[in-house]
Amino acid sequence: NDSQESSDSVEENEHSVDSSSCDGSIRAQDSHVKVVIFSKDRPWQLQQLVRSMRLDEKRGTTIPETTISLQLLLHITEEYQAAYEAVIASIERTITSATNIFMTCHRENTKSLTSFQCLMENIVEVDAEEKPSHWMFITDDCILLVSLQTLLQTAMYAFYSNTKVKCFLSRLHPGISWTQTRSLPSPPPRSCLRFLPGRTPHDRGAYVYPLERGELDWAYPWDLSGGIYKHDLVKKIIENLKSTDGLSHPNRMEIDGN
After folding, report:
1. d(Cα 89, Cα 102) in Å, to the nearest integer?
2. What is the 3-state secondary structure (H, E, C) of 158-171?
3. Strand 101-107 to 32-40 pairing
4. What is the pLDDT of residue 38?
5. In sequence order, what are the residues at sequence separation of 6 or more whose Cβ sits closer than 8 angstroms to the Cβ of residue 64?
6. Beta-strand relationship, 206-210 and 2-5
7. Which of 50, 209, 229, 258 has its C-alpha lying 20 to 30 A from 221's C-alpha?
8. DSSP string spanning 104-127?
9. Are 59 and 149 in contact (CB under 8 A)?
10. How many helices (H) and strands (E) does the chain have?
11. CA-based Rg of the chain, rounded to a whole angstrom?
12. Taking CA 110 as the corner, what is the angle to CA 104 and CA 111, rounded to the nearest 5 degrees?
């Protein structure tokens, strides 16, 4: 898990986390994260992703829980309709006893007003009462190696421990030095990685680094494969993409968002 931060100078970022940057007014247990899952005609992959999230995980009363709003953004052709309905029903059964997890399904229809762009605009345009503190984007070909609740707790602590942190990229790790999408070496910026220890046994901690020191995957801040962002940043990016074709497709949204 890695967090990217912007900075006035690289030297400043290479020091330990500055407690003066901490936002004491918000704590992880106050967080509300909207998790947008993109899935197109891959119900089995969606099922495996959701299973890896361990939505029914019991964490105990001493561990603060983040409120999670699952937003399934689905593109379904007729032959996959029944399989998707079964997956959705399975998710509903899993979260039925959870007090902090909710789900909404958004179905894309290119022949009506429920196009991808309309769905994204509607998802982001929330009223003040349901305004999330953060957003997570993930595609149905991803698998989590820790529970979703654990991942979000780690991300929230990274955000609230240092206000310079702009995004949390859950698919990066210092042990991964190859970019699959471009089939090229993508070495981590090891000289400026700073470890931020976790606060609980569930929290494994994260690495923080200045974005300008990264290359390839390590300089790709807007990531729909597990990226986590503050609400205001997401809203700003979506607004900027309205004037382009950036909301025509998830791939376009990621490329133009960067």
Report:
1. 13
2. HHHHCCCEEEEECC
3. unpaired
4. 95
5. 27, 28, 29, 153
6. parallel
7. 50
8. EEEE--TTSS--HHHHHHHHH---
9. yes
10. 7, 11
11. 18
12. 115
